[in-house]
Structure formats: structure tokens, C-alpha cells
Amino acid sequence: MSGVTQLATAAQAAARRLGNTSTRQRDRALLAMAHALISSQDDILAANAKDMEAAKAKNTAASLLDRLELNPARLKGMSEALKALAMLPDPVGEVVTGHRLPNGISLTAVRVPLGVVAIIYEARPNVTADAAGLCIKTGNAVILRGGSLAIESCLSLARVLAKAVEGAGLPADCIQAIESTEHAAVDELMGLHGLIDVLIPRGGAGLIKSVVENAKVPVIETGVGNCHVYVHKDADPKMARDIVINAKCQRPGVCNAAETLLIDDEIHDKVLPPILKALEENGVTVYADDKARALGSITRIQAASEDDWHAEYLDLKIAVKVVADIDEALAHIAKYGTKHSEAIVTEDYQASRRFVDEVDAAAVYVNASTRFTDGGEYGLGAEIGISTQKLHARGPMGLAALTSTKWIGLGSGQIRE
Amino acid sequence: MSGVTQLATAAQAAARRLGNTSTRQRDRALLAMAHALISSQDDILAANAKDMEAAKAKNTAASLLDRLELNPARLKGMSEALKALAMLPDPVGEVVTGHRLPNGISLTAVRVPLGVVAIIYEARPNVTADAAGLCIKTGNAVILRGGSLAIESCLSLARVLAKAVEGAGLPADCIQAIESTEHAAVDELMGLHGLIDVLIPRGGAGLIKSVVENAKVPVIETGVGNCHVYVHKDADPKMARDIVINAKCQRPGVCNAAETLLIDDEIHDKVLPPILKALEENGVTVYADDKARALGSITRIQAASEDDWHAEYLDLKIAVKVVADIDEALAHIAKYGTKHSEAIVTEDYQASRRFVDEVDAAAVYVNASTRFTDGGEYGLGAEIGISTQKLHARGPMGLAALTSTKWIGLGSGQIRE
């Protein structure tokens, strides 16, 4: 049995024990984890310093270095997040539905942990603590696979957290990290049907595509977001500008940021120029179709190609297209969207209804920014990722998304006739 | 674009239209489908006769021929089932959860169709009508792939049903069947990520394993059931016998039938002989461990091998093992079970609680037959299959299992701070 299989086998055994612990035991473990991040701060920061040094030697981009870096304030934040998790209600044991069958059997469907959750992520060490916390809260064993850039930090964090969990009386194997940074380890993980109950890839489109195409275990696809803001002819111009700027600029590197602006022909000559101006003021480069470029109101504007309609820039760039009407907007979104988050700006009732009904996406907004697609914003308390598939969970995944159900039938000797 | 991809592309376009039809339109289409099965009876039976003839020429087993055969009474049954579906409440549009966010956005999660559902099944023509009905009810386009033995029947049924749906004003492409019986068609189907929202294999363990291992589209694993009845030392002996006989013999060829009997050592010499006798009377062959065989009370008993603990016989065969106590029973089920349906027979409260909490399966029973794991028995109204995975749906899958959700945020210009 090779390394990853051995680790998953241990995870499954740990999950069996963890699944029958009480809410109180798991919440105590979360508080122990929160405490350990602070008391083991020196070890974690030393490991992180190694990652930072190696990353700098590879001329890693400043934005990536910023994501990679840990410091006492960030560890404090991770610790506080674990404490907050401990305060949330436990989904495990919740009776989802139930009734007495005509034959007298008392039937309930009860939330239970998924079992073993594997998470593949990139160079964000904080995901290690977040994901481990969410899994312990929901009674799942977790297998963590951090990116190679953050490997020392992730392994150190996982060791500290596993030790804390063990100290709180839960199996240490509930939290395990894969040490190898070789791709073969991920290949092995993806093939462990029967050991891994769900695999969640968090990261770039390439990683997610590779997992979706190669995994034999159940996968939840997350995060790729080619999100649109559609400014309808009856939009409030100022609201349209504010929403476009917020959706594009408030945090351009995330999946719920807008990547394309669609605007109705009828109003584009009046409503688009102030939006383009505001985009330019915010440092955004615009890739626009001919009609938008013909407005000639800004300098950072280039001709859009087919690629731009497909692009998830994750950057201060936006594609702009003038559309004939809502039909063309809906068709464009159906063709190029990734079913993540889509917004219309309009004061027209029928247009709002059509957009909500006809756009096929995890989240659809009327007169609000796409940036709201987030577990915290939705009041879910915590988030393990944003699902862009339709099976199991869609949109921000809170604690309930890390559970399954079990049907329980209590009888008195019933047999089937 | 090859055949299957073309068909899936048409299905996706049809699904987009179907997803925005009203409950009334879809229920009318179901009634039209029900009517068409009767009015096109001659065509369907002629196609079925071809399948029967070819199957007989291949010396197909009588039990399979029975599953394959259609007649006016069976068509009437399929037609009635479609009418019953039309009477069920529509899950599409149900508001699953909702609240107003602190910033004033009104947020709801609403049930929506999955989109395109593909179903691979074997030589049971009735699945064609059942699956098509369930998908139309829930606003999903369906791609059907029947087994080669039933191909003419399935294609004829799909043609008749698609025409009925079209006559009722829905796109004909909502119901399509794959004509090719080549395995390449299934391979192609499994690879259509982005076109197929879920693939449900219904059939033998081999088919399911192949789909789970090779599909790039989301899959729901169904049906493999190595189910146990565990007779605890404090069981009522008569109840134990009745439940074992029902779980094994009432319909041995189905996934929720029992395949192994576990019984506590302390009572096995008193409680097991009448159970063995009843099994023999019901024509069951017993594969038993040494202790059970030592009882010497029946003739149709053989020594069990390791394979018997793993076996899903789907036949009048059962494995019998004497266990030391509930710990050994739980460990045996954890090792050999397929997480489908498991039952304990006991009058002891603590044993019942431990069994319910510690057995990891879609359905767990106390003092009731495993045969109850069924959408009809659970009152779900209809069933598309029984999920043995933990993601999305677990156990009998009713109409809600064929839906996803969409988050809808209605705002008044909110942007994220």
C-alpha cells in the first residue's frame, strides 16, 4: 500500500470514530485547534519562512507571495475563525425529514458526515486551517493537499492541528496532509474510490479541469467564474456604474468578480461612457466590441476577440459588449458563462423575472453585485468553496454541504408484503 | 460532432426551454405520454417482439426474458405510472430556504431542474418510460441508453414518448435514446462534461463500476447491495426468522434483498435452526461458517468462503456467520457491506442505538426488513434509483433528487463593501 492509500485508509478508520463523537467533543477540538495555532506560532512561522524564501528564489509574483505569507496577525485570524466555527450550530444529527410509514415504521432522514473529504488547493496556507476546521466541525476526516509553494506551511499547520485534535480526544488521523508535492500523489488520491467520499479541488481552472476529468471519486467542481453584469435599457445609470465597478474592482482576483459587461444598444451611448470612465479611473483595461470602442471615451480600451468573451481574467480587465436586447444578453451568458454568478441591472419587472428564470447559474442577482456569492455574505457562517456544478451543492457551500443523510427505520417486526 | 455529442447538444438546448415551462405544461405532457403508450401499443409491442425473438435466439435466461417482455397489461401499468407522476407535487420552483440579508438583499434558494440527465440501464424496457416521466416531471431533458437486449423496445418507447411530449408543446429533444448499442457510445456519453449534468447508471455491479471509473461527468452511483440482517442476542426469535425470510426471499433479485445473515454466538444454537429450516423451505442455499454448519439441521448448506461475505447473490442464496457480539457484527458490516441497507433484530435499546449510529449505510433498520429501502415504500411517490454514494442523494431518489437549486438575490443597488 503506497503512501497516499495508507493515509486514506487511516482517514477512513478515523472518520468512523469521528462520525460518532458528540457536537461538544468536536467543538472542544476546534477550540484546541484555535489555541494550538497561537501556541505553536513559532514552528508555523518558521516553516512559512522556508516557503517564502524558496518562493522568492523562484521570483514568485508579489501577489502570490502575499497570499503565501503568514504572520502573527494572520494566524490570529485563522485561530479566531476556528473559534467562530465552534460557536456555529452542528448540522450533524439534524433530522432533515421524517414520518411514520403506513406500516408503522418510524422513518427519519438524519444528517451524517460525508466520511473522508479530500481537498486539493494552491498556495494559500490559511485554507489548511479553514478546511480542517470545517471538516472537524462536520465530523469528517480530511486529507489536505496544499500547493508545492506552500508545502512547508501546510504540513506544519496540519501537524499542529492534528496534534491539537488528538489532545482533545479525537483520532489524530482526522487531519492529514499529503507530504509529496509530486503530481503522482494527486493521481493516486483521485483514484481512491471507496476510500474518499468527496474530493474538492480549490484553485485555478487547470487544476479543477484535471480533477474533473481524471477522478474516479465523487468530485465537487468549484469556483471557475466568468461572471457577467448585464445593464438593461431600463437600468438606473448610476446604479449600473456602481455595480459594474464593485463587481469588477472590489477584489478582481476572485471567482465572483465580473469579467464581462453586457449593455443594451438603446442606451449604450449614454450609459456606457461614465462606466468606461470609472473603469479607467480604477485602473481597468477594457476589451470592447466595435460599438463600445466607437464611443472613444477612454484610452485603456482594446478590441475584444472571441477569447475575451470566454476569459476569466481574475485581474483588472473587463470585456464589454453592446447587445441588441435581453435575448442577446441571455444567449451570450448561456454560451460563455460558467454558471457561477450573473447580474442584471434594470428597473423593469419583466426583464428582472426573465433574467432570474432563464439564466442557469449558481447565483443570479437583480440590481446587486456578483461579489455577494459568498458563504459569509449569505449568512452560512462558513464556506468550504463555491460549487459551480448542480449535483449535491450549488453556490457557496456551508457546513450542510459537508454532510450526507442516513435513512433510519425503527420498526416492530415489519416485513414487506 | 458525432452522434451522441449531437444528441446531447440538442438535449441541452431542449432542457433550457423545458426548464422554464410551467408545472401545468409538464403535467399535460406526462398525460400525453401516458396516453401515447396505449394508442401506440401496436408499434411498441411489435418492436418488443423483435427484441424477444432475438433474445430467445441467444438462449437468454427465462428470468431475463420475463423482464424484457412487454404486453398490454404492462404497458397499461407504465401508462398508469405516468398518470400518477402527473398528480404528484412539482419540486421545481420550491423555495428551499430564504432570508433577507443585513444589506437588504432578498435571498432565496429555489429548486431548479438539473438540466440534462443521462441514464444507462439494462434489459428492462419499462425503465424507458419511468425515467422519461421522472425527468419530464422535474423539467430535465433525458438521454436514455437501454441495454442491447431491449434496444428495439427502448427506441420505440422513446420515439412514442418524444412525439407525445412534442404534441403537448414541449421540445421533442427532451426525450432522446441512443441508437447505437456499441460501448463506444457509452464512452462518448461519459465524457460529455459540460453537456450532461448527471449520469445515472442502473444495472449490474460491472456497469456501475465502469461508469464510476471512467465518467468525466457527475455520476450518481446506484444500487449495489450486499445487505445484512444481524440477529442480536436479545432478538425475538420469531421476528428474526420472519425478517430474514422476507429480506432474502420476498424478491431475491433486487438490491435491497439481504445477502448475509449475522447472528450472535450466545443464541445461535437456539435461534438459528428454525431460520435455517425456513430458508431451506423457501429454496435458499446457505453458505455458512463452521459454527452454523455444525448445527447440521438442513441439507442445502455449504461451507462459506471469503467470497461469500463479499457476494451480492441476487438469488436464493445467503451467507450465514455466527459472530461473538455486536462489535464483530458492526466490524463485519463495515468491512463487507456496500452501504446500502442494513438491519438489526433486537429488543435491546442500547444495541439498537449503536447499530443505528455506527452502521454507515443509506438505510439502517431496527426490527424491519431491508426490503423497505424503496421510493414507493418511503412515500417519495416515485423513484429514479437508489443511491449508494453520499453525495447529492442517498438511498431512494425521488423527484427532489432530480433537482438542483439556484440562489436568487433581489437587490436595490447593493455593492459589497
Describe this structure in words.
Two copies of one chain form a homodimer. By secondary structure, chain A is α/β, with parallel strands linked by helices. Chain A has two domains: 3-221 and 389-410, Aldehyde Dehydrogenase, Chain A, domain 1, CATH 3.40.605.10; 227-372, Aldehyde Dehydrogenase, Chain A, domain 2, CATH 3.40.309.10. Chain A is built from 15 helices and 16 strands. Chain A has helices at residues 3-18, 23-39, 41-57, 62-68, 72-87, 126-137, 151-167, 183-190, 205-214, 237-249, 265-281, 290-294, 306-310, 326-336, 349-358, and strands at residues 95-100, 106-113, 116-120, 141-145, 175-177, 198-201, 227-231, 258-264, 285-288, 301-303, 317-323, 341-345, 363-368, 385-387, 395-397, 403-414. The first copy, chain A, has a seven-stranded parallel sheet. A four-stranded parallel sheet of chain A has the order 5-4-3-6, sandwiched between helices. Chain A has a three-stranded antiparallel sheet with strand order 1-2-16, with no helix packed on it. In chain A, helix 2 (23-39) crosses helix 7 (151-167) and helix 6 packs parallel to helix 7. The radius of gyration of chain A is 24 Å and the shape is globular. The model of chain A has no long low-confidence stretch (mean pLDDT 95). At the A-B interface, strand 2, helix 10, helix 15, strand 13 and strand 16 of A face strand 2, helix 10, helix 15, strand 13 and strand 16 of B. Strand 16 of chain A pairs parallel with strand 13 of chain B.
